[in-house]
Amino acid sequence: MVRLLDDPISFLEHEDADVRRLAISVCVASGLTDASIAAIRRRLVVDEDGAARAMAAEALGGAGDAAMPDLDSARSDTDPRVIESVATAYGELRAGPAVPWLIELATGDGDRSGREAAVAALGAIGDESAVPALLGLVDKAPPQVRRRAVVALTVFDDPAIEPAIRAAATDRNPSVREAAEMVVGRQPT
After folding, report:
1. What pTM was estimated for this model as a whole?
2. Cα–Cα distance for residue pair 101/87, rounded to 1 Å
3. For the segment 114-135, what is each residue's pLDDT rounded down to a tens digit?
4. 179-183 contacts: CB < 8 A, separation 24 or more?
5. What are the domain boundaries of the chain?
6. What is the distance between the alpha carbons of residues 17 and 22, in angstroms, rounded to a whole number?
7. Is the domain defined by 94-189 classed in CATH 3.40.50.720?
8. CB 3.0 to 4.6 Å from 169: which of 14, 17, 33, 187, for a disulfide?
């Protein structure tokens, strides 16, 4: 274990997926370096373990623009955990070029966690082109996605947002109502 803490990069090639995932965590916790970023980028591309690829994608959210090509390639991964992590990384990177893909992911009928991560990323990026999609999600999406859309909309300045959030304050789902009430206050009953 001490060896892993001293040199986590060498453990990114370990045969045990649990060890590789731990090594990614240690690289992130100790601060990403050019060498660790390169090794983690490789994990995203070649690791057979979906959880390790997902961890690699999320870790690359702290790697700057150098990670973008690998994150872009990982969009086609078949593991929903990886897709969710790619969306999260794009949000951390404030990756404007990813907005169309994030809108497609958020408004699609894919995995709910991926959709939630895409909505959160759209809010983090703050690109105005996302507003129509987010407004649509506040009204017609699974509850978790509606809740995230309410929160994401708070970063934008558009006249259609306040009425949408006020309407969400009367949503049938308590978590959506609570998110909206935190923004506009409790609605009269």
Report:
1. 0.91
2. 9
3. 999 999 999 999 999 999 999 9
4. 179/147, 179/150, 179/151, 180/150, 183/150, 183/154
5. 1-90, 94-189
6. 9
7. no
8. 187
